[in-house]
Every structure is written in C-alpha cells, then in structure tokens.
Amino acid sequence: MRYLFIDGAYITKRYTEAMQRVFSADGELDLSRVQLWCASNGHPVRRVFYYDCLADIKRERESETEFHARLEQQKERFDRIQSLSGFHVRLGKLTGTRSLRQKGVDVLLAVDMLDHAFRKNMEEVYLLAGDADFVPLVEAVTRVGTWVNVVYDPRASAKALYGDQIALGVITASRER
Questions:
Q1: CB of 4 closer than 8 Å to CB of 45
Q2: Which of 19, 64, 132, 176 could hold 160 in an S-S bridge, CB 3.0 to 4.6 Å?
Q3: Contact criterion met (CB below 8 Å) for 94 and 101
Q4: How would you write 150-170 as a 3-class SS string?
Q5: SS in 3 state form for 8-70?
Q6: What average pLDDT score do residues 105-124 get?
Q7: More confident residue, 27 or 12
Q8: Mind listing the pLDDT tens digit for each residue in 43-66?
Q9: pLDDT tens across 90-99, in order?
Q10: For residues 11 and 29, is the Cβ–Cβ distance under 8 A?
Q11: pLDDT value at position 159?
Q12: Domain 2-173, what fold?
C-alpha cells in the first residue's frame, strides 16, 4: 500500500512559479493530477494527505469584505481537495504580523507519516516536499521499513533532502533491515 504526503505550500509555490515562468499566467493546481501521476508511473497511491494552512490573518489595507471573500475562497479550495477520493486535508496555523509563517504544518505531516509507518499502514510513501527539515523524517521512516520516494523540484529544494541524486527530481530511500 502506498500513501502520498504533500507539503501544500511547497507544491503550490512551485506550481505557481512554473505557470508564471512558462505561460506568464496563474492557474490552480489540480491535485487529482498528482495522484494520477503516481498511478501512471505504476505506483498508485491509496491515500493522499495534503498539509497547508488557512491564511486567516487579515492583510494590511484589506477590507473586511475582501478578507472574508479570500477566506471563503481558501475554504472552498480545501473542501475541493478533501472531496477527492482518498484525500485528507490537514491544516496548521498561520502566525505573524509582517512576515507570515506557517506553524505546525511540517510537524503534522511528520507525525502522520511516522504514525502510518509505525502502524504498518503503508509499505511505500511519496513525500512531495523540498524542505531539509524533512530529512530526519525520511531517515526515521526508512528505519522502520517503509520505502520512501521524495518528489521535488531540483531548482527549489534543499540538497540535504535528496543528496546527490538530482537528475530526475525523484529519489528513493531504501528500507533498512
């Protein structure tokens, strides 16, 4: 059984940058296509866990109407993701005043992935992320016998997460026994 864990901020940023770079346009990522990508490569995933946060802090110069419309749009997006077959949305918190930061998102992802690995709910996992903070997670999950595939953008990822295997943008960490 395979699961997919997605760092939502990472994939959204990479997708937005690619759309701007290639088409000079915005576009919303269709996450069902990510699940199809896994299946088309012969590795269908049973469950997909998507981690992000609701940007529920009012922006400077944003009216109440604009703020509530933006929140509603985000909630609708998360609801659409949650409604996809096998998808689960997990949300952290947003903090800060000038520089907004996500809090708890990476920890939620790590706890969930470790929990599923320890309970042997999955034999193989895809991690779609680029943050070096996930290196200890990948190491821990492989130590308990779960095969880990890290999917990343080579232009925007911490090398510590994927080592020297940059060519394809997908690496595999083997099981340790």
A1: yes
A2: 132
A3: yes
A4: EECCCCCCCHHHHCCCCCCCE
A5: HHHHHHHHHHHHHHHHCCCCCCCCHHHHHHHHHCCCCCCEEEEEEECCCCCCCCCCHHHHHHH
A6: 96
A7: 12
A8: 899 999 999 999 888 888 989 999
A9: 999 888 767 7
A10: yes
A11: 62
A12: Rossmann fold (3.40.50)
For residue 168, pLDDT over 60 is answered with no
Q: Quick check: 77 and 70 in contact, CB under 8 A?
A: no
- Residue-level pLDDT at 127: 92
Distance CA 8, CA 56 (A): 16
Helix, strand, coil % (nearest 5) of the chain? 40, 20, 35
The SS3 of residue 147 is: strand
pLDDT at res. 156: 64
Q: How far is CA 33 from CA 40, 110, 157, in A?
A: 10, 23, 21
**Size of the chain, expressed as the number of residues it contains:** 177
Give SS3 for 140.
helix
Contact in structure between 172 and 148 (CB atoms under 8 Å): yes
pLDDT value for 60: 85
Helix then strand count (H, E) for the chain reads 6, 7
Q: What backbone phi and psi angles, to 5 degrees, belong to 80?
A: -60, -40
Q: At what angle do helices 105-118 and 135-143 cross, to 10 degrees?
A: 10
Q: Cα separation of 44 and 164, whole Å?
A: 26
